[in-house]
Amino acid sequence: MPDITSPQAIKFSNEKIRVAADLIAQLDNFAASVLAEWTAAGGTSLIPNTSDVIADGAASDGRPIVTGAKANNIINRLSELRSTNAAAGLAMGASGVRDTVLQVAVNTTL
Q1: How many domains is the chain built from?
Q2: Which terminal Cβ of the chain has fewer Cβ within 10 Å, N or C?
């Protein structure tokens, strides 16, 4: 097969495809780090899955309020991202998924 030499295709690959792969790999690496830290810190013992607000100053500075339940939901989404179950979302742990990203990604760390 001949190489793809279209300037538009090359630009799209460099500016979109590679950047997307980098961001996906960075997210997967960050998710692994956050989940390891969550586990080491005690998970729901540290932040119970409740409607209690995490008093981080958001109420006075305009950021969205984070509750224990909302924080646990983010942990759940990170777990789903790293899952081996393709039905659970991106499932970076599913056979071959991470490999397809790393075949294109260049900058995989934050």
Answers
A1: 1
A2: N
